[in-house]
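note to self: dont lose this again. the chain is below, predicted strucutre after it. 116 aa total, dont forget to put it in the shared folder this time
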Amino acid sequence: MSIVQEFNDYRAKMNEKIMAADNKVLKRFFNLDTNAYAEGALDVKTKEIVGLACSMVLRCDDCIKYHLGKCHELKITTAEMYEAFSIANLIGGSIVIPHLRRAVEYWEALQSEENV
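---
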């Protein structure tokens, strides 16, 4: 199983369990997150790139993978990805480099699945 499929399967399974708990606060938080990334004054592509850069600075590998997946769906180019990576590393400093490595690995996995 690919790292992309493994991540997506796990995320879907756990989100289903969380939603099944029927906790109003968690449901509202998930909804807020969904709505924050909807088209608005900023387009969805810009919002996903911002989310990716913030996730890298905050060093959340799950969030990075999620936003990379969304960026891939939105047809963001590799050149655009590397510009976002460079901004995240500039803001976050050298501590972001391990997350950059994993982000590049995941981005390449997304692209290779597209070519299968």
